[in-house]
Amino acid sequence: MSQTPTALALPPFFSRRDVQGSIFALLATAVWSGNFIVGRGLAEAVPPITLATLRWSIAFIAVLPLAFTSVKRDWPHVLQHKWYYIITALFGISTFNTLIYVAGHTVPAINLSLEAVTSPLFTIILARIFFGEAITLTRLLGIFVVVCGVLLLISKGNLELLYGLHFQAGDLIMLLAAFLFAVYNILVRKKPAGASTLTFLVVTFGLGELFLLPLAAWELGAGNVIHWSPTVIFAAAYIGIGASLFSFWCWGLAIERIGAIRASMIYYALPVFCGIEAVLLLGEPVLWVHYVGGALILSGVILATRERK
Fold this sequence. Notes:
Blueprint: H1 12-15, H2 17-41, H3 48-80, H4 82-103, H5 109-116, H6 119-131, H7 137-154, H8 169-189, H9 197-221, H10 230-266, H11 270-282, H12 288-305
């Protein structure tokens, strides 16, 4: 007797939720690292609020055809939880990303890198407050190792450089952005059951874009202009489809599988991906500090995210 064929199953290792979640978080972080490079490159070509508006316009247009059926099915759920979607879009889409572009116009890149790594720390604190998650000694040790690696990378091995940092209003803006990303992580974890991931993305993208449109109109009306070029068009497509649609989809799946804290720990790998891209795209040399810093970051991430058995 012939047996009914079954669906192709993943190997046991890759079918585990923690492995899947870690892979999704790594994919999101890798693509987001390119967003930092692109965002810095467009600082003089596109005003910050307009850049954020352009980014989410592209993301919304890209996801809408894919999500139309699911949104139609889930619309009663969206209306029932409308305030959740409004708050999530306002913090995670409209404000968080825009503040990064605004801060990038006024502070050095080394400050931004130092301040970006505070987001997982905020996530741990918020998860402790709202979910009662324990801050274990192992997790703290992993965070310490990661922070050491990040500081080594951004100082290029000269830790005395950190003493010369001068903080200004833009630094506070970046810290606020890091805090809002932590808030977004907590909100994603508390996402009400009953709607698909595509519905979540298209609704939050659309609302986030709606909140940004008046500000972008004001920014352009104040005399700012977009200096269009093939590079600007390609970069806008990258941050709209890659760093928005793809990365936020992966990040949501990661939080569903491994939680906000463990996903945020993997976010610490961002400087490693940025360093690799700087070598490949900008031709920057590979120094000993990149190997040591990268090893510390990856080791700390593994230590901080592993589950206790």
